[in-house]
Amino acid sequence: MSLKEDSENMELAECTKNPGFQDSDGGVSVEQPAEQRLSTVVRLDSEYKQLEPFAGMPKEVLLLYSSQARYRIPREVLFWLTLSCALALVAVTATVIALSPRCLQWWQVSPVYQVYPRSFKDSDGDGVGDLKGIQEQIHHFQYLNIKSVWISPFYRSPMKDFGYDVEDFRDIDPRFGTMKDFDELLAKMHSNGLKLIMDFIPNHTSDRHRWFNLSRTRDPHYEDYYVWTDCNATSQRPNNWVSVFGNSSWTYDEVREQCYLHQFLKEQPDLNFRNLHVRKEIIDILVFWLKKGVDGFRMDAVKHILEASHLRDEPQVDPDKPPELIINEWDLHHDYTTTQLGLHDLLREWRAEMNVYSREPGRYRFMVTESYDYNEVGKTMMYYGTPLVKESDFPFNFYLLDLPQNSSGSWVQHLVNIWMNNMPQGQWPNWVVGNHDKPRIATSVGQGYVRVINMLLLTLPGTPTTYYGEEIGMENINITDSQANVNPVLDPQRAPMQWSGDVNAGFNNKTNITWLPVHPDYKSINVEVQKRDERSVLAQYRFLNTLRQAELALSRGWFCYIHADENVFSFLREFDGLRKAFLVVLNFGKEAAITDLSSVSELPEKLEVLMSTMQASDGRVFHKSGIVTEEGEGLLIQYSTHTRFNPSHPGACYISEKACYLEVVDILYTC
Ligand code: GLC
Ligand code: MG
C-alpha cells in the first residue's frame, strides 16, 4: 500500500471513532476498495444530512456539508457583503480625496516680500546692502509673518541697471557678498521656514558677459548668441525699434561692425532665443540655482524674450509723427518686439524643468512672470498657462500700480475687477502696489492712504506683494540732478530701509555712506519706533497679515463686491460652511463717507468693527445703513451669518477653488 493510501485509510479509521459515522452494520471497513468507499460516502450523504459537522472531519465530508444551502447561502452573502464594503470604502476615500480642496501652497499662504538687496541692510558698511545684511534681518520677516521673500538680482554685474545687467549668472556680485554668503542665507532662511525667490533675467546679459565678448569677436559657437544685424555705423538704426528706456534699441559695435539689439540699456544686449544653445544655457542656469535649493524665480521682462526675425519696422501709434521723433516705448505698437510666437513654449520648457525639482513634498518651485500690457490684459493672463500646461503660478498683477491716478472707491474696484474678471477660472490672483520701478505709495497716493492700501492688499483674495518699506509707509526720497546722472533709471523709491532712528536709519552703522541718501523722515518712520506703537502702520500690517493667514474666509474664501462709489470700495469675504465672515469698507476718496448697506439682506443689522486703520473706529458698532469712514480709513468688520451672500449673487462673487463643504452633514474639510 502506498503512503497516500495509508493516510487516507487512517483518516477513515479516525471517522469510525465518531459514533455518528457508524453505520447500522457496525462501521466502515478500512479494507474497502475505493469504489466501494465512494458508494459509502454517497450513502452517507443521503442518510446523514441531519448530522452536525465536527472538528477534524475529512475533506469529502466537509464538502457534503459546505454545499448544503444553509451553509452555502450565508457564506456567499458574507462574501459579497465584504467585497462591496471594501469597494465602497475605496470609492468613499477616492471621492473625499477628489472633493477635498488642496491645501494652499506656500506661495499662496504668505505675501511675497520684495527685498531690494542694495537697500535692505548693509552689514559691512560700504554703503550698499548685502546678503549678510538680509540674513541679519531674517527676524523682520518672521515678525511680519512673511514666509516668501523675493530678492532682486545679486548676480555679478557692472550695475548699469543695478543688477539687471548680469555679467555672470552663476556668481554673486562682490558688493553683495560671496557664494558662501548666499548658501548660508538660503540655509538660514530654510531653517526658519522661509522661502527664497530669486530674480531670473533671461532676456539679456550685461555687455560684459563672456558670451557677448565671444559673440562680438565672432567665436563660431557664440556668434549668434545675440541679435545682430548689419547697420550703418553713423545712423545706427536698422529699423525703428525703440528701447524700453528710450531711443533706438540698436547699438553699433565697432569690433563686429554690426548692430546688436537691446530692448533695455545699450549695456544689456538681448539674447537670441532662436539659437538652441542659448536656450540650453538658460535652462542650465535655472538648474544650477534649483540644485542649490532656491524656491522660485521672478522671471524678468519675459514679453521681450523673442523678437521677429524679419526685423520690420513696428507700426507707429501716431502714423503722422516724423520717424526721427519715434524715440519712446509708447510711440510704437510692439508687434515685433514683444509676445512673439514661441515665447510661451519657452516658459513651458522652464516650468517643466522646475517641475522636475518640485517633486519632493514641500519643495514646490514657484514661478512668477513680469510682463505688463495695461490695455491687453488677455496677453498677461496667458502666463498662467492652460489647465493642462502650466506656466507661471501667476503673472504679476500691476493694475493697482495705477491706483494713484484717481482717488475713488469705484476706481479701485475697477482696477481690482480688471484682474478678477479676466483671470482664467480656478487661477490664483495676486496684487502689487509697489516695486523698485514705481514710486512708493506713500508718495504717489499720499501718506494718508498707506494704511487703507495695506488693508486692501491683505484682505483681497490671492497673494499680495509688498515692496520693502511699504509695511512702515516709507516715502520716495528726492533725487538731486547730480545723483540722477549716476543712474539713468531714476530710483527715489530704492532708498535705504529705515530700521531705526540711529545713524543712517540703522541701514548700516559703520560709516556715514549710503548708496542713496536715507529719507529725512527716518526718525519717525522706522521699524523700531513702529514696533513700539501698537497702532503703527507696521503693527496694522502685521495684524492683518496674521489674521489673513489664520482665517479661512480671508485666505481662500469667496470674494464678493458689495459697494463702490466716489469714496468707498466695499467687499466681503466668506467661506462655505463657516458662519464667520468679513466685510471690508475702504475709503479711498477725498472726504468722509457714510455708506448705506441696508439693501444687503445677508448682512446683520449691527456691524462691529474688528479693526480700523484709524483708532477712533476700533470696536465701534455701526448700523448697516450708516457705516462711517474717514478719508483714507479702512474698516474690517467681522460678523456671523446664517445666510451667505455668494449663492444668491454669483455675478458679484469669485473664488479660486471651492472649499469642500457638505451642508447636510455639516462637514468642512480644512487644511
Ligand atoms: C524689469 C525690472 C527693471 C529692469 C528691467 C530690465 O522691468 O523690473 O528694473 O530694468 O526689467 O531687466
Ligand atoms: Mg529679447
Task: Summarize the entry for a quick read.
InterPro entries: GH, GH13_cat_dom, Glyco_hydro_b, O16G_dom_2. It contains 20 helices and 24 strands.
What do you see in this structure?
- 30% of the residues lie in helices and 15% in strands.
- It has 671 residues and is α/β, with parallel strands linked by helices.
- The radius of gyration is 36 Å and the shape is globular.
- It starts with a helix and ends with a strand.
- Mean pLDDT is 91; it is low at 1-30.
- It binds alpha-D-glucopyranose and magnesium ion.
- Alpha-D-glucopyranose is lined by residues 161, 164, 201, 264, 300-301, 370, 436-437.
Strand elements, count: 24
Enumerate the spans where pLDDT stays under 50 for 5 or more consecutive residues. Answer: 1-30
- Counting helices, strands and paired strands, the structural category is alpha/beta
Q: Could you report the average pLDDT, rounded to the nearest whole number?
A: 91
Kindly, what is the distance between the CA atoms of the first and last residues, rounded to a whole number of angstroms? 73 Å
Q: If helices are DSSP runs of H or I spanning 4 or more residues, what is the number of helices? A: 20
Into which percentage range does the β-strand content fall?
Answer: 5-15%
Q: Which range best describes the helical content: under 10%, 10-25%, 25-40%, 40-55%, 55-70% or over 70%? A: 25-40%
Oligomeric composition of the shown chains:
single chain
Shape: globular
User: Strand order within the widest sheet?
Assistant: 11-10-9-5-2-1-13-12
Largest sheet: 8 strands, parallel
Radius of gyration: 36 Å
**List of distinct ligands in this structure:** alpha-D-glucopyranose, magnesium ion
Organism: Gouania willdenowi (Blunt-snouted clingfish)
Domain Glycosyl hydrolase family 13 catalytic: 114-519
Main location: membrane
GO biological process, one term: carbohydrate metabolic process
